Amino acid sequence: MITGKTKLLGVIGHPVEHSLSPVMHNAALAKLGLDYVYLPFPISPENLATAIAGFASIGIVGFSITIPHKQAILPLLSTISPIAQVIGAVNTVTRQGDTWVGTNTDVEGFIAPLQTTYHQDWSQKKAVILGNGGAARAVVAGCIQLGLAEIHVVGRNWQKLQAFRQSWQNSPFADQFQIHEWTELPNLLHQANLLVNTTPIGMYPHINDSPLSSQEISYLPQEAIVYDLIYIPKPSKFLHLAETQGAIIIDGLEMLVQQGAAALKIWLQRETVPVTEMRQALQNHLGI
Known about the structure:
Elements: E1 7-13, H1 21-32, E2 36-42, H2 48-58, E3 62-65, E4 79-80, H3 82-87, E5 92-96, E6 99-103, H4 106-117, E7 126-130, H5 134-146, E8 150-155, H6 158-166, E9 178-181, H7 185-189, E10 194-197, H8 214-217, E11 225-228, H9 237-244, E12 248-250, H10 252-268, H11 275-286
Parallel strand pairs: 1-2, 1-3, 4-6, 7-8, 7-10, 8-9, 10-11, 11-12
Antiparallel strand pairs: 3-5, 5-6
Helix pairs in contact: 1-11, 4-5, 4-10, 10-11
Active site: 70
Enzyme class: oxidoreductase
Subunit structure: Homodimer.
C-alpha cells in the first residue's frame, strides 16, 4: 500500500528497464514490513544534474546507480567514500541532511561469496582478471582487499590497458596489480587460483560466446575458482566450460545480491537485511 508517507528508494540508469534491483529490494522491504518502495528511474545523461536536484526536493532516501552514471555522478555529490574514490565510481548514494553521500558496494558484493564460501589464505593466491572496463575496477579493488599475492589484469587493447593502469596512479592501489596483453594468457592461467571475467562476452542474448576457449581454461590449476560477473544465462558458457574442466564456479547473481544488500543496510541504517529473500526473489524472477 503506497501512500503519501511511503519513503522512496530507487535506481537510476539509461536504460534502466533491465535492472533487477527493484525485484530484490522490494522483496526485502516487504519482508521487513517497511513503508518504503524502490523504483527504477530512467535518466538520460543530459538530465542527470536536474534529476538529482529533483530527488533532493522530493526527499528520496537513497538510490543505486547503473550505467552510464557511475562516474558522471561524482561532481554532484558532497562526500565520496574512500573506496569509491579509489575505484573512481559510485553505485550507491544516500541523502544525509541536505547533502548526497556516495559510496561503492560493488567491491563488497564481489568479495562476499569468496569470503563466505572459500576460507583460504588469499595471501598465497594469484588472480587473473579478464577485461579492463568499469567492472574490472571493483574486482581489482576487491582482490587487493582480500590480500591476493598477485593480481593480473588482461585486455585486448594495450592502449586501454595502459590508460586503466594510469587511472590508478594517484591511489594507494597503483602498484598492486600488473597489466598484460591477451597473448600472455596461457602463461598466466597456469598459475591462476582465481580467474574473473569482467567482460560482457557471453551475456544474454550472446549465450554461446565465451571470453576463453575450453583449451585455454584447461590451463588452470586444479580447484581454481572461476568467477563470471554475468548472471544471465546461468551458468554462462564460460562457467559451463570451467565447470567441465573441474573448476569451482561462481556467477554474478550473488555479487548482485550482496552489493544490493550492502546498499540497503546503508539506506535503512540496519545491521542486517533479508538476503535470502532478495536472492530468492531474483531466482524466481529469472526462473532459475
